């Protein structure tokens, strides 16, 4: 099952066609996508095998972020060994580095992003969307609490993020537009192996990151278990699972995003984010 926000409304998707869920269900399910997660099992059963004969074409301009108001957004840092190495972190990672991203940072898959400075970095990430509430979930049951997967960018303003004496990960990663997600949500059962998906990030056609989620240090089920051991997970919560190597801060010399470029973030079986970059307040250069 593939769903998205088309013209602000929840829709079942097939290629470039969308079936409005509220209309097709005779009002059983609301048009607001964020409301579907509390009834995810019921909705998934209804959607299974649903005919899309009445689906209509849609354009990229109609596509919004599939989730806008999650109760919680978790970010996981340093979750690929090659990224740990490029960050120069020692000793070995033994527990997830967890931070939050604030909800006002969410953007759509084709939204323009304003750069607040000349030190904004890229981080393509697999994002898990929670579909069932869970507290103290066992790792073996982790996938059963995930409704769907989507593509995310964990954009990061490195000066704010690393300002001392204590780093401010949540602030540095939460400027407006710093959490584009989409273009759709794909249910877990659609993947032959949800633990092994290719993901990449490119700037104006130049590939900057190229990895596979099988290289995660902490897999999605383990993250569900570790997070829920402390915090009850709620339907619609987002978990940004970490980024592979190739970020700008890890390069020599360091490299950051500039106005005028287009950042494309792709995950196998889900799709791509395409975000144009423009100058925001304090950014050098012009779009």
TrEMBL record:
Keyword Methyltransferase on entry: no
Domain Fumarylacetoacetase-like C-terminal, residue spans: 73-278
SUPFAM superfamilies: FAH
Keywords: Hydrolase, Metal-binding
Domain of life where this protein originates: Bacteria
One Pfam family per UniProt: FAA_hydrolase
Protein name according to UniProt: Fumarylacetoacetate hydrolase
Organism from which the protein derives: Streptomyces yokosukanensis
Taxonomy of the source species: Bacteria, Bacillati, Actinomycetota, Actinomycetes, Kitasatosporales
């Amino acid at each position: 099952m593939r769903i998205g926000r088309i013209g602000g409304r929840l829709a079942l998707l097939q290629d470039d066609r969308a079936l409005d869920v509220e209309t097709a269900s005779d009002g059983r399910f609301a048009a607001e996508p964020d409301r579907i997660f509390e009834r995810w099992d019921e909705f998934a059963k209804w959607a299974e095998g649903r005919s899309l004969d009445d689906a209509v074409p849609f354009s990229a301009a109609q596509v919004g972020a599939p989730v806008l108001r999650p109760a919680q957004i978790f970010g996981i840092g340093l979750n690929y060994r090659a990224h740990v190495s490029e960050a120069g972190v020692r000793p070995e990672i033994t527990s997830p580095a967890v931070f939050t991203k604030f909800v006002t940072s969410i953007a759509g898959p084709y939204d323009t992003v304003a750069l607040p400075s000349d030190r904004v970095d890229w981080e393509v990430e697999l994002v898990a969307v929670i579909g069932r509430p869970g507290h103290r979930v066992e790792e073996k049951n982790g996938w059963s609490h995930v409704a769907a997967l989507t593509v995310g960018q964990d954009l990061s303003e490195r000066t704010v993020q690393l300002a001392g004496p204590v780093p401010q990960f949540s602030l540095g990663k939460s400027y407006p537009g710093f959490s584009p997600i989409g273009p759709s949500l794909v249910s877990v059962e659609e993947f032959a192996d949800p633990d092994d998906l290719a993901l990449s990030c490119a700037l104006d056609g130049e590939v900057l990151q190229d990895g596979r989620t099988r290289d995660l240090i902490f897999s999605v089920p383990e993250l569900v278990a570790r997070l829920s051991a402390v915090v009850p997970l709620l339907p619609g919560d987002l978990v940004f699972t970490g980024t592979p190597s190739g970020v700008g801060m890890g390069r020599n010399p360091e490299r950051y995003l500039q106005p005028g470029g287009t950042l494309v973030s792709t995950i196998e079986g889900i799709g791509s984010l395409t975000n144009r970059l423009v100058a925001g307040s304090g950014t050098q250069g012009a779009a």
